[in-house]
């Protein structure tokens, strides 16, 4: 059970409403008005520094870890430099929208409309992207749900894992600044390259000064509060906080408390710098352990105190609300900011890395039940059984955490992407299920590719059944297919077309990112940039891995092709015309055909008939993607991971041959389609493991829902641990479990007030169920439960 | 497979069985049973032959079954579908045309190779969990040569086995099979011979004698007792049971299985009469548990 301080903080957290703070936008904009003409990276660095100097400094009651995103307990910020149009268009409706509403007061809206947005008109990333992207690509990429990469031009990309091990804890921002000054002094500004480097190092100095100043403002605030504090204990705490904020993150931390505060300041800097998703915490149990061990040994901290600090950090990570457009919110539902934190796994030299903190992180999530951080674990054959059982116990709690990953496959994915064996072993998760490494620059979720659209276009001459518009290739009509091979070839041709335009969209976005939105702060957190004097957006990281194209609907595609293969070309009971007509009519008048279609083999039942098709699709997708390279010359990567993207992706697709009705959800990651994996969880896992997970370097995702009754006994927990080990022995990468009864979910829909902390795994992440839209809630309820098996 | 590959009749292979022994298992349900327990949850397991289940409540009366029926078992009378089980040859034609799922073929003749193919699929799950395959039914020992081949094949493949049996078999004839099986679940439904015969159709002497003999040498024999209110939940029955287990057997323990009525819909579908039963209350169950434990007989559960 968690202590009363954390309990109170959690209560306050649950009771507060997400609100938009405009202070960051104001300071950032004013700064830019004063730096016209300077190099863009320097302007952004100065603006960051001004933000650090000007945003409100807020220490909430009883806090131990300090630093607030805005003046509200749950604050979202807007970053007009990326996109302001959607804010202007949508902010009057913020409070009432169905997915992820925010509070924003009239005065704030006034300021945005008068002082902020006018400056950015014509200058934002969004406007630039839309003016650069070619018409043909735009037709299928912009706000269509067929291809989606708006998180790469309506917002910043994030997808960075701060390197505490080798950078921040070693040098502190004071040390980083000194290094930048040293590099500057050694440069002669006689070449274009040297000039560019000078700008980089100059920017580095500004951002270091900014984050140090922010910390010192917190020190002052803590001192001021201490002076006014009558409670002697709290007074001392505030004085301690002040001392810590005077020291970190300027200097390396020396205690566990200082290290936690360093992590949060570093994270806060990342958030303020670009408000992006997937600012990951990396291998927290590994880099924090030396501080924990030292403090425990010296008697400077108790395990309970350390636990409290970890839980305080969990709450801080959850305070930040990622402010996004209603369209983006459909894809990334639940105020989720994808700050992933990974525990367990192996050390760089291959030993089991599990330590006390690994367990304490599991416990923290169980205690505070916040949706952040996204807790991931790495399991390998030598992971202690106790650890895996602790993981299973947390799964049983039903928070949807942790996401369980196959340690070795994560390493294999990164080896395939070009990392050294030691670095590949040192991986941690990015966002939801992307194996990542802290010295890597990568767009881990560059484009969502709707695989079911390729089915629709192949059977409908490139025309969307929902909009009636031609978005794919105009090829031959469905009735002209003479063999199953014809159908398959048509599908692949349409899919290749979608991949091509995803690449165009990504490369275009990468170009303008390098031009317009360099990342002076985040570049300091990733090794390679300082050495090369080069920004992350220009390939500064030690490793650059190509953007990830996330396929949605592999199950739907495979099931659809299997129906055509079986009913039309093998059993010859129906014709292509029957199928085409049924789809055009959303199965109305074709109920018998729909029944036959639904009775065909479905991916997720260990039936090779259809599983083979799923494997073929995944292989084709991977190989097609690998043909392309990004602006740094790195090959693109494939993934089948979910965000909540399978719901909006389904809403733009008409009926599909597998029996799916028009506009209903597709399938997340490599999971079987909801309600079709009726054989057993083992069969579902075997189907999924047939896909070659190791080649999809962007990650693969399986979501399995269990009713809690199924995990009630200790014996059943051991069985859960066993299926995880068996699934990983089969070579699969990731599995997550929703352990919630359908009945509980229905109750939560009816009485959201009583279920404010009910967490569900949406797909790749967990969020409060009551924060999801009705459609998203229904989709979750519909997922197969193995309740009665 | 070998030409001598025997065929057997089963009605289901259930993967992810987690209550039929240790770990994660696949359970193979044999069709056919010499007993007719009135509370049986799987009446479709009684007859050895393949049969057609007819769920009248799902029937829409479309008449497609009657159109394809070659024996006249399915026919239309007064605008309603009738099903004359006695005339049915279980050809299965009606099941493939029924749009409502009202007609289901129950049971399938399969070879050892067929069964192995399915059960081997989850081998990795058995290994990781200490699970394996459970042969259930129906009565597995009613198809001894088929069972022998299956158990022996599992043995060769390193797959652990368990059997769920009524205990009503000729022990000498199946001793070699039992020697290969890792865990035996055997029912004791009632200690009174006459009652047992009335409730199940057979007496209990063979069963009790088999349990006594088998448990002397088999390392893992677990007795299962279905608990049915008013049928076998008397203090006397339980005291007799405890005395028998203690004096004459060396069983590993007892698992108590309170009655459930999940099988109700299937009674009508196979054309059998359904008897209403219920489980004893929790106190009674707890009392039996204490009684067993006080006699030094472990109470096990596989929940």
Walk me through what this model shows.
The complex is a heterodimer of chains A (789) and B (303). Chain A has 789 residues and is α/β, with parallel strands linked by helices. Helix content of chain A is 50%, strand content 9%. Chain A contains 30 helices and 20 strands. In chain A, the strands form seven sheets. In chain A, strands 7-8-9-18-17 form a five-stranded mixed beta sheet. Chain A has a four-stranded mixed beta sheet with strand order 3-13-15-16. In chain A, α2 packs parallel to α5 and α8 crosses α9. Chain A is globular, with a radius of gyration of 26 Å. The mean pLDDT of chain A is 93. Chain B folds into two domains: 226 residues, TIM Barrel (Alpha-Beta Barrel), CATH 3.20.20; 56 residues, Alpha-Beta Plaits (2-Layer Sandwich), CATH 3.30.70. The model of chain B has no long low-confidence stretch (mean pLDDT 93). In chain B, β1 and β2 form a beta hairpin. Classes of the chains: A alpha/beta (789), B alpha/beta (303). The interface between A and B is medium-sized, with 23 and 18 residues.
Query: How would you spell out the order of helices and strands of chain B?
Result: EEEHEEHEEHHEHEHEHHEHEHH
Cα-atom radius of gyration of chain A: 26 Å
Average pLDDT number of chain A: 93
* Net shape of chain A: globular
Instruction: Write down the overall mean pLDDT of chain B.
Output: 93
Residues in helices of chain B, as a percent range: 25-40%
Would you spell out the secondary-structure blueprint of this structure?
The complex is a heterodimer of chains A (789) and B (303).
Chain A: H1 4-15, E1 19-21, H2 23-33, H3 40-54, E2 75-77, H4 85-90, H5 106-120, H6 125-132, H7 135-141, E3 147-148, E4 160-161, H8 164-185, H9 192-228, H10 232-247, H11 256-274, E5 279-280, H12 284-298, H13 303-319, E6 320-321, H14 326-331, E7 340-344, H15 356-368, E8 374-379, H16 385-397, E9 403-406, H17 407-416, H18 421-425, E10 428-430, E11 434-436, E12 440-442, E13 447-450, H19 451-459, H20 484-516, H21 529-532, E14 543-545, E15 548-552, H22 554-570, H23 576-584, H24 591-599, H25 608-626, E16 637-639, H26 646-651, H27 681-690, E17 703-706, H28 714-729, E18 734-739, H29 742-750, E19 759-761, E20 766-768, H30 774-782
Parallel strand pairs in A: 1-2, 2-6, 4-5, 7-8, 8-9, 12-14, 13-15, 15-16, 17-18
Antiparallel strand pairs in A: 3-13, 9-18, 10-11, 19-20
Chain B: E1 7-17, E2 25-30, E3 51-54, H1 64-68, E4 74-77, E5 80-83, H2 93-97, E6 103-106, E7 108-111, H3 112-121, H4 123-129, E8 132-136, H5 144-156, E9 160-165, H6 171-180, E10 183-187, H7 193-200, H8 205-217, E11 221-227, H9 235-248, E12 253-258, H10 264-269, H11 282-294
Parallel strand pairs in B: 2-8, 8-9, 9-10, 10-11, 11-12
Antiparallel strand pairs in B: 1-2, 1-7, 3-6, 4-5
């Amino acid at each position: 059970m968690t202590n009363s301080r954390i309990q109170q903080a959690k209560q306050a957290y649950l009771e507060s409403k997400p609100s938009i703070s405009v202070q960051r936008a104001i300071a950032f904009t004013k700064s830019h008005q004063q730096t016209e003409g300077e190099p863009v990276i320097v302007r952004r660095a100065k603006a960051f520094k001004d933000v650090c100097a000007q945003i409100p400094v807020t220490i909430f009651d009883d806090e131990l870890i300090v630093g607030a995103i805005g003046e509200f307990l749950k604050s979202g910020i807007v970053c007009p430099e990326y996109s302001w149009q959607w804010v202007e268009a949508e902010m009057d409706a913020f409070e009432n929208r169905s997915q992820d509403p925010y509070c924003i007061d009239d005065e704030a809206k006034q300021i945005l409309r008068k002082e902020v947005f006018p400056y950015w008109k014509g200058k934002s990333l969004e406007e630039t992207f839309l003016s650069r992207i070619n018409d043909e690509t735009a037709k299928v990429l912009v706000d269509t749900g067929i291809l989606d990469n708006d998180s790469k031009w309506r917002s910043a990309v994030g997808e960075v894992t701060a390197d505490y091990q080798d950078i921040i804890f070693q040098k502190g921002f004071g040390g980083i600044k000194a290094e930048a000054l040293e590099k500057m002094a050694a440069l002669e500004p006689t070449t274009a390259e040297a000039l560019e480097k000078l700008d980089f190092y100059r920017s580095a100095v500004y951002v270091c000064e900014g984050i140090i100043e922010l910390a010192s403002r917190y020190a002052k605030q803590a001192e001021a509060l201490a002076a006014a504090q009558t409670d002697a204990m709290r007074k001392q705490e505030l004085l301690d906080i002040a001392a810590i904020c005077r020291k970190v993150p300027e200097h390396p931390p020396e205690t566990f408390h200082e290290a936690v505060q360093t992590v949060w300041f570093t994270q806060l800097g990342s958030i303020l710098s670009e408000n992006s998703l997937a600012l990951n915490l990396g291998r927290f149990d590994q880099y924090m352990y030396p501080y924990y061990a030292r403090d425990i040994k010296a008697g400077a901290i108790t395990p309970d105190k350390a636990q409290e600090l970890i839980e305080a950090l969990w709450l801080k990570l959850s305070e930040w609300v990622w402010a996004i457009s209603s369209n983006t919110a459909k894809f990334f539902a639940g105020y989720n900011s994808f700050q992933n934190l990974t525990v367990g796994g192996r050390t760089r030299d291959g030993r089991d890395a599990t330590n006390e903190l690994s367990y304490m992180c599991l416990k923290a999530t169980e205690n505070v039940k916040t949706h952040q951080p996204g807790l991931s674990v790495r399991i390998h054959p030598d992971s202690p059984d106790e650890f895996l059982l602790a993981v299973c116990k947390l799964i049983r709690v039903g928070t949807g955490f942790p996401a369980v990953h196959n340690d070795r496959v994560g390493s294999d994915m990164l080896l395939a992407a070009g990392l050294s064996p030691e670095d590949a072993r040192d991986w941690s998760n990015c966002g939801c299920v992307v194996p990542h490494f802290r010295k890597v620059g990568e767009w881990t979720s560059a484009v969502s590719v709707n695989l079911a659209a390729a089915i629709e276009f192949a059977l409908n001459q490139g025309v969307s059944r929902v909009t009636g518009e031609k978005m794919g290739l105009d090829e031959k009509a469905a009735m002209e297919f003479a063999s199953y091979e014809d159908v398959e070839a048509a599908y692949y041709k349409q899919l290749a077309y979608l991949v091509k335009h995803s690449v165009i969209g990504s490369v275009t976005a990468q170009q303008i990112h390098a031009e317009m939105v360099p990342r002076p702060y985040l570049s300091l957190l990733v090794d390679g940039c300082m050495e090369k004097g080069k920004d992350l957006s220009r390939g500064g990281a030690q490793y650059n891995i190509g953007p990830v194209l996330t396929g949605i609907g592999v199950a739907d595609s495979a099931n659809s092709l299997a129906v055509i293969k079986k009913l039309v070309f093998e059993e010859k009971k129906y014709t292509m015309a029957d199928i085409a007509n049924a789809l055009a009519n959303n199965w109305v008048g074709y109920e018998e055909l729909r029944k036959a279609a639904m009775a065909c083999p479905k991916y997720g039942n260990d039936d090779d008939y259809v599983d083979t098709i799923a494997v073929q699709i995944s292989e084709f997708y991977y190989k097609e993607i690998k043909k392309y390279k990004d602006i740094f010359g790195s090959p693109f990567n494939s993934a089948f991971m979910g965000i909540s993207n399978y719901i909006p992706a389904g809403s733009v697709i008409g009926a599909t041959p597998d029996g799916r009705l028009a506009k209903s959800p597709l399938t997340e990651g490599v999971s079987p389609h909801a309600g079709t994996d009726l054989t057993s969880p083992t069969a579902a896992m075997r189907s999924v493991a047939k896909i070659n997970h190791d080649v999809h370097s962007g990650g693969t995702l399986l979501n399995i829902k269990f009713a809690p009754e199924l995990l009630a006994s200790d014996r059943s927990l051991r069985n859960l641990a066993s299926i995880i080990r068996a699934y990983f022995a089969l070579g699969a990468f990731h599995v997550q479990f929703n352990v919630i009864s359908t009945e509980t979910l229905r109750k939560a829909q009816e009485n959201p007030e009583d279920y404010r902390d009910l967490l569900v795994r949406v797909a790749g992440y967990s969020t409060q169920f009551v924060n999801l839209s009705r459609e998203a809630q229904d989709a979750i309820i519909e997922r197969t439960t193995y309740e009665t098996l | 497979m070998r030409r001598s590959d025997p065929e057997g009749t089963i009605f289901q292979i259930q993967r992810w069985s987690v209550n039929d022994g240790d770990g994660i298992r696949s359970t193979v349900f044999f069709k056919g049973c010499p007993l007719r327990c009135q509370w049986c949850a799987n009446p479709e397991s009684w007859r050895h032959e393949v049969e057609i289940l007819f769920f009248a409540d799902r029937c829409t009366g479309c008449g497609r079954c009657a159109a394809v029926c070659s024996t006249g078992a399915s026919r239309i009378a007064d605008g309603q579908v009738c099903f004359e089980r006695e005339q049915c040859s279980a050809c299965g034609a009606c099941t493939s045309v029924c749009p409502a799922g009202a007609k289901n073929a129950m049971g399938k003749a399969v070879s050892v190779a067929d069964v192995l193919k399915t059960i081997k699929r989850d081998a990795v799950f058995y290994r990781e969990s200490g699970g394996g395959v459970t042969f259930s039914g129906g009565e597995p020992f009613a198809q001894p040569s088929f069972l022998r081949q299956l158990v022996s094949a599992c043995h060769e493949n390193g797959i652990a086995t368990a059997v769920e049996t009524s205990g009503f078999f000729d022990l000498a004839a199946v001793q070699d099979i039992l020697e290969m099986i890792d865990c035996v679940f055997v029912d004791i439904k009632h200690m009174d011979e006459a009652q047992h015969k009335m409730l199940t159709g057979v007496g209990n002497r063979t069963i009790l004698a088999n349990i006594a003999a088998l448990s002397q040498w088999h390392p893992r024999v677990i007795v299962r007792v279905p608990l049915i209110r008013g049928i076998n939940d008397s203090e006397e029955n339980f005291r007799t049971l405890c005395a028998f287990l203690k004096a004459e057997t060396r069983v590993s323990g007892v698992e108590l299985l309170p009655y459930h009525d999940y099988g109700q819909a299937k009674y009508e579908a196979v054309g059998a009469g359904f008897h209403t039963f219920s489980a004893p209350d929790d106190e009674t169950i707890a009392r039996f548990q204490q009684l067993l434990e006080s006699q030094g007989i472990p109470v096990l559960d596989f929940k």
